[in-house]
Amino acid sequence: MNLKLTYGSVLLLAACAGGTAAEGPSPEEQIVGGIHPPLPAGYVERSSLLLDDGLKPRHAVFEWRRSERPVISLARATDDSVPHWRTVSVLTLPVIAAGDVLVMGACSARGVTDRRVIAIAERTEGDSLKIIRRAWRADTARDRFENISRRGVVCENEGED
Questions:
Q1: Domain range for residue 132?
Q2: What's the number of domains the chain is made of?
Q3: Within a domain: residue 12?
């Protein structure tokens, strides 16, 4: 069978698949595999957290902003003598609503402290944030973020940022 695709049939196939022929990786997907510092163009770093204990940590998460949209990067340390990080996964978060807060490294899941948990929580008074909107865990064994249940997630109230 001889199959000949024209530009029009490519557009039709893309439309049927729910995309366009011009679609490519998102700006966030394009930074996977990149090494920083320096940060990718257009991003500003807001916070970072080492995920491993010890003198030579292997994993970290970084909160970057591009416009008002938070982007969380999971990175592995390179073997350079100067600390650099290779981005292995990216989590693009929704714009965080007024009254909500992003929490990294200060949550527990089902009563167990887990610094790999990242959550969006409603900002409330008191020591704990218990109204969790969304939650993820940085899976360092598989170099990716995974959605986790909001149930049982509690974060420390670190105050204003």
A1: 26-156
A2: 1
A3: no
Could you tell me if residue 152 is inside a domain? Answer: yes
Whether this model's pTM surpasses 0.70: yes
pLDDT in single tens digits along all 161 residues of the chain:
443 433 333 333 333 344 444 466 666 778 899 999 988 888 899 999 999 877 778 999 999 998 878 899 999 999 877 779 999 999 999 889 999 999 999 999 999 999 999 999 999 999 999 999 999 999 999 999 999 999 999 999 987 54
For residue 103, give every residue at least 6 positions away whose Cβ sits within 8 Å of its Cβ, in sequence order, or none: 118, 119, 120, 121, 129, 155, 156, 158
Report yes or no on 82 lying in a domain.
yes
Q: Is residue 20 part of a domain?
A: no
Q: What are phi and psi of 144, to 5 degrees?
A: -160, 170
Q: Which residues contact 123 (CB under 8 A, 6 or more apart)?
A: 99, 100, 101, 129, 157
